[in-house]
Specification:
The protein has seven helices and no strands. The protein has 135 residues and is an all-alpha fold. Helices cover 70% and strands 0% of the residues. The protein has a single domain, classed as AhpD-like (Up-down Bundle).
Amino acid sequence: MAILRAMGPRAEVLQAFLALAAAALYGPAALGRRERELLALATSRANEADYSAEAHTALLAELGGGPDGSARDRALVAFALRLTLAPAEGGEAVAELREHLSVQEVYDAIAVVGLLNFANRAALATGISASDDLR
């Protein structure tokens, strides 16, 4: 996967990224996998990170797709956009998300958006694309 190369040559950075991805995005959590993928996709689109957007579009489709039009999904997408594009408004974004999610789910959402912003920036800085995964 090209995203792993985008993390750079330091093994400890790659290991930390993989551990955080396993915990925040793929492991057990209060927030469901589809919802975490929805956050990942919204964050990647906000960052115009095509590599990640393509990957998370495919993963989201496998999990049932989205957003489904519900107030909860709209709140998740709005949160990802706001935290990504206006991070100084994070406190307000969390307060709005709390109207739809439990405290534990909000922390899961924060972790996913933070992870994806890190990954998106690495992908954008290194210029990786989906075609790099084919090599």
